[in-house]
């Protein structure tokens, strides 16, 4: 991807929580600058998810490489009455100089499995918490939702229609990236095409039809304007009557060298309309014209339509995808696991963590499907494939982030290697996770050091 393509504006170092800065000042004043280790993970999976899909690493690394306070930001902080001049001078020179280990984007993960580890001086590792969670949480959330849609719609064309109801511009663009990563074919979000090279797709709005005094005139106008991508929206007035108009219009367009590629349904009983429209199109010699559906689509509706045999060739998925409406948040955390060479462990009720720098090993059965993981210490070994790999050292990427098309292909392979039960929309048994003896021993040691029983 060319770096000359338009990109969302860097929001700057102030996109953080206030307590990150107040803690940093306290660390600075007490000279608490030794190495800290933080890990990002999900605490548990909700009832509506059998797995999560890691996403957002490229943007996380972009953020870490670009992290710095501008003079305008420092001037503003100086006027808030909270921060001392010496600390502001420290912030002026602050750059991320740490190491990052992470799962590859597109890797399925489960509860209590770290997908990213930060090793850096404590103030740096603390400061980046908010934005890293912001980036990794959202794209992993949307990629996981998109993966469910992909698994529910084998062989169907899927287009992201979510921008207009996403929670802000950045969310819309990153939702397009996450859904394409998970296997969607295209997005209607133009900036996502420019920024990430995602194929773009779209048809027309009902307002385009309504702006014309005649529905056929609207179809014909649009077809001549975009002769290579003619998909006509046919449910503005009477869906089946409009399908018949398409049949009558097709020969006239064909004489001009224009082929109607598809029709779109956006309302009503999509299955019933699709069956009637398919009959009309086939009877009119338009068996090659596809039927594309949109309007309140999610993976459950797609599954039901497929089970009913609805002749729908593709889906535009918007609101439910861009907001992950059934599970709108991932129960995730970014927690301190080690400081100054000493393991640290949170023991809060329901939120206990495993201490230390960790590695996750994934095992596969004879059919090549993952069958269980082992969580252990980074310097320990276990059976399986290690999933957490170094991606940044001393604040610089070890290599460029892979092209999105490559990540997408890797994701497809990973989804194919999931057990069939996890690929289903139905709740599945918990995926097996073994906690290695070495990690349990470190947790006991951390408890003793903290005076816990």
TrEMBL record:
Domain Nicotinate phosphoribosyltransferase C-terminal: 386-441
A Pfam family: NAPRTase_C
Swiss-Prot/TrEMBL GO biological process terms: NAD+ biosynthetic process via the salvage pathway
Modification(s) after translation: Transiently phosphorylated on a His residue during the reaction cycle. Phosphorylation strongly increases the affinity for substrates and increases the rate of nicotinate D-ribonucleotide production. Dephosphorylation regenerates the low-affinity form of the enzyme, leading to product release.
Keyword match Ligase: yes
GO CC terms of this entry: cytosol
Limits of the Nicotinate phosphoribosyltransferase N-terminal domain: 14-136
Catalytic class of the enzyme: ligase
CDD domains per the UniProt record, alphabetical: NAPRTase_A
Nicotinate/nicotinamide phosphoribosyltransferase domain mapped to chain residues: 157-337
Keywords: Glycosyltransferase, Ligase, Phosphoprotein, Pyridine nucleotide biosynthesis, Transferase
Catalysed reaction, written as an equation: 5-phospho-alpha-D-ribose 1-diphosphate + nicotinate + ATP + H2O = nicotinate beta-D-ribonucleotide + ADP + phosphate + diphosphate
Pathway: Cofactor biosynthesis; NAD(+) biosynthesis; nicotinate D-ribonucleotide from nicotinate: step 1/1
GO molecular function term, any single one: glycosyltransferase activity
SUPFAM superfamilies attached to this UniProt entry: Nicotinate/Quinolinate PRTase C-terminal domain-like, Nicotinate/Quinolinate PRTase N-terminal domain-like
Gene3D superfamilies linked to this entry: Aldolase class I (3.20.20.70), nicotinate phosphoribosyltransferase (3.20.140.10)
Enzyme Commission number(s): 6.3.4.21
Domain of life: Bacteria
Family: Belongs to the NAPRTase family.
Function according to Swiss-Prot or TrEMBL: Catalyzes the first step in the biosynthesis of NAD from nicotinic acid, the ATP-dependent synthesis of beta-nicotinate D-ribonucleotide from nicotinate and 5-phospho-D-ribose 1-phosphate.
Protein name: Nicotinate phosphoribosyltransferase
